[in-house]
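so ive been stuck on this for like two days lol. basically i have the seq below and the ligand is pyridoxal-5'-phosphate, smiles is in there too. i just want the complex predicted, nothing fancy, no docking runs or whatever. if the output looks off dont worry ill sanity check it later, just need somthing to start from for the group meeting slides
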Amino acid sequence: MGLKISVELTTTPKTKPAIENLSFGKYFTDHMFIMDYDVGAGWHDPRIIPYQPISLDPAAKVFHYGQTVFEGMKAYKTPEGSVLMFRPYKNLQRLNRSNARLSIPSIDEDLVMEALKQLIKVDEDWIPAEQGTSLYIRPFVIATQPTLGVSPSEQYHFIIILSPVGSYYAEGINPVSIYVESEYVRAVTGGVGNAKTGGNYAAGLKAQQEATEKGYSQVLWLDGVHRKYIEEVGSMNVFFKIGGKVITPALNGSILDGVTRDSVIRVLQHWNIEVEEKRISIDELVEAYRKGTLEEAFGTGTAAVISPIGELNWQGDKLTLNDGQTGPISAKVYDFITGMQRGTLEDPFGWILEVDPKI
Ligand SMILES: *Cc1c(COP(=O)(O)O)cnc(C)c1O
């Protein structure tokens, strides 16, 4: 890996928030990782420094043309006090796929892994240990070259920040209501829908806002060409159980290749439950609902792991799923994956990486 990571520790550690106040992405730890890129020098000066604001030229390309990517992953503290990560290389590989799509130079995955381990170690006291809590990890890249010409930046920052997050579900897992979006679209094949980049989120805010006003927590996106094939939910991939079979939209270039999505597919297959990745239309879904064969639906993503869907609103029709309750598959997969992540259940896949093996 070659590059040595320098470490500067804070002299003014912050007061840690109370567990009850954590929520999502509100508090940040005492340190951050940063390294810089310049054409010619490549990525250089990897360093852990006290958490602090960054200073950028107002002409920095990221502000104007949105050349940026991010990742989202978690570290968990086990009841015995060791620190675990879940399939972190999957996120680092996806970071580089997003980088490639946004014309951002690739980043050495082993160096990022080393940076992650060292940063988590430095801020280990910030990892909450209560059931359902974790340390959310947000790596991201921004284009910093201060020129307004439309071309890939010649300078970047890669930064990792850490945020202790509370239990996503205060009272156990609870179904959400989802609005099926028919006016706005999120992405098209050939665009950037399969990259984890800010623009996808900026483009989705309006629909999200309108859905929230109608009392829905997120939107279910349909494809941007035919306006009928199911894509994904806000920041989650989506699964349906229809007539005993689990179905999820195939990766078609416009949806994100979720690490949780892949994990759920592999866990279900491990249990000999059939999973089909295919194109599925909203009409097929509504028809299954009318026939009574749409048994269960849930979203998957790092933040919530599994988010059962209790209601879908399609053009004013309210489809209530599994009586608005958490379905059996959602509950079982949630318990299994979160158990592996916290180290309380055996990991038959080799997905868990111990950050600092206790001796
Ligand atoms: C991050 C993200 C997901 C979930 O991916 P995970 O790797 O499971 O966290 C799904 N959809 C979108 C649009 C995302 O940005």
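The domain at 176-341 is CATH 3.20.10.10 (D-amino Acid Aminotransferase; Chain A, domain 2). The chain has seven helices and 18 strands.
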